[in-house]
Specification:
Elements: H1 3-7, H2 16-27, H3 45-55, H4 63-76, E1 80-84, H5 87-97, E2 105-109, H6 114-122, E3 126-130, H7 141-151, E4 152-155, E5 158-161, E6 168-171, H8 183-193, E7 196-200, E8 208-209, E9 212-213, E10 220-224, E11 237-241, H9 244-254, H10 278-288, H11 291-309, E12 315-317, E13 324-325, E14 333-335, H12 343-352, E15 358-359, H13 363-368, H14 372-380, E16 381-383, H15 407-413
Parallel strand pairs: 2-3, 2-6, 6-7, 7-10
Antiparallel strand pairs: 1-11, 4-5, 8-9, 8-13, 10-11, 12-14, 14-16, 15-16
Helix pairs in contact: 2-11, 2-12, 3-10, 4-10, 5-6, 7-8
Bound molecules: pyridoxal-5'-phosphate (PLP).
């Protein structure tokens, strides 16, 4: 947030109605309730679900699970995708696969969704928060480097936090609202300190960083297909990896660690029943076939928000960082500092005007005391409706060429907002 923006406005300039009007102009709906998100089922969802039901393969085994995994590999460019029940389970499994043990620490951005923190806690580890960057909304590489220089020490046990005596087992940047984080810088720092990198890409399917789909070059990354995501399976998630052995381990760990056998149930470690059911995968296949259209629609909406908010003083629409294309999963508007104290008034006005708008809740900040930039974002940010997918003509959400989107097509669909 530029200081110039803060200095030209005062709290008395603040008119919540102006912001809500701008939202309505962008979305093109002068009246009626505007939800935060409505999923679109304009493809083969019903046909695939019917196929599942007729085949009786509705549970954790079935052809759609394999098909969904292969489609995810094609779309992201990752060598292996393993479909699981939700993004939190994907993250939990990623941390386990990265070697996070009870008593370890995992570095997480201070501004994130609670699932990131929960998955760390499920491993018996402790989150260690570093500040977020106003440029990317994600983990700030400079803050990360400074923090590690201040507290970390390389030992035979791994990299240790001198202040707590705990091992720092992983660094987990998150692509906030779909905007790719400064991945190269963070990966270089993780590499220098010998710490595993786990990408929380839950919000960012379809986003690219320096021409590559996020998660595609990661040793481990997690996706979510919750109902509010760009592509939904109802509930679902996936682990992405470029390491064949980790891919095999990911499948094993998330399918109750059962050894392959024609009839015997032999399990060689404590595993998780995290398999994505065939029904959900069927929905996911139909949704992935429409990803190009969803991305284009999200980006049109983001471009419209950028245009209307350019004329509203004291408000900044959050655009994709340089060298990236964002899927604009969630559109974020940052209020100038003097407006922060009146943000809740904006919420009340939005509700009264039938526009959903939620403040960013930084659970991480609440737990550990918030680093400055993350706190600024958490208290000054609001979310206008994040899609008009629900209202777009069905044809705009359909794929334009073959039914399976490729990483190349996915990138070409990710047009700049203006
Ligand atoms: C950043 C982040 N991580 C993890 C998750 C967890 O995904 P799920 O809701 O599918 O468990 C979500 C989303 O919902 C998320 O936004």
């Amino acid at each position: 947030m530029s200081e110039a923006m803060d200095s030209v406005v005062t709290s008395s300039d603040f008119k919540p109605e102006t912001i809500v009007d701008a939202v309505r102009r962008a979305v093109g709906t002068p009246n009626g309730v505007l939800g935060l998100h409505e999923p679109v089922f304009a493809g083969k969802e019903i046909a695939y679900l019917e196929e599942c039901i007729k085949s009786t393969f509705v549970s954790s085994v079935g052809p759609f699970v394999d098909r969904f995994e292969r489609m995810l590999e094609q779309v992201t460019g990752a060598k292996r995708a393993v479909a699981v029940v939700n993004g939190t389970a994907a993250l939990h499994a990623c941390f386990r696969l990265a070697g996070v043990e009870p008593g370890d620490e995992v570095i997480s951005p201070a501004l994130t969704f609670i699932a990131t923190t929960n998955a760390i806690a499920y491993c018996g580890a402790t989150p260690h928060f570093v500040d977020s960057s106003l440029a990317t909304l994600g983990m700030d590489p400079a803050a990360l480097a400074l923090r590690l220089e201040a507290i970390a020490e390389r030992t035979a046990r791994g990299t240790i936090n001198r202040e707590t005596g705990r091992r720092i087992a992983a660094i987990s940047p998150m692509h906030t609202f779909g905007h790719p984080v400064a991945l190269d810088e963070i990966a270089a720092i993780a590499h220098d300190w010998g710490i595993a990198l786990v990408e929380d890409a839950a919000e960012s399917l379809g986003s690219t960083y320096k021409g590559h789909a996020v998660g595609s070059r990661a040793r481990l990354a997690a996706l979510s297909f919750n109902g509010n995501k760009i592509v939904t399976t109802g509930g679902g998630g996936a682990i992405l990896t470029n390491d064949e052995e980790l891919g095999r381990r990911a499948k094993h760990l998330t399918t109750t660690a059962k050894l392959p056998h024609k009839w015997a149930f032999v399990h060689d470690e404590i595993g998780f029943n995290y398999r994505l059911p065939n029904l959900n995968a069927a929905l996911g296949c139909a949704q992935l076939e429409q990803l190009d259209g969803f991305l284009a629609s999200k980006r049109r909406l983001a471009a419209a928000y950028e245009r209307v908010f350019a004329d509203v003083p004291g408000v900044r629409f959050s655009c994709e960082p340089e060298d990236t294309t964002s899927n604009y999963w969630l559109n974020a508007v940052l209020l100038a500092e003097p407006y922060a104290e009146r943000r809740d008034e904006l919420g009340d006005t939005a509700r009264a005007m039938a526009v959903s708008r939620l403040p960013v809740g930084s659970s991480a900040s609440r737990i550990l005391g918030s680093p400055a930039s993350a706190r600024a974002m958490a208290t000054r940010c609001c979310w206008p409706p994040l899609s008009w997918l629900g209202r777009c003509p069905a044809r705009a959400c359909r794929p334009t060429r073959s039914s399976a989107p490729s990483a190349r097509r996915l990138r070409s669909a990710a047009l700049k907002p203006r």
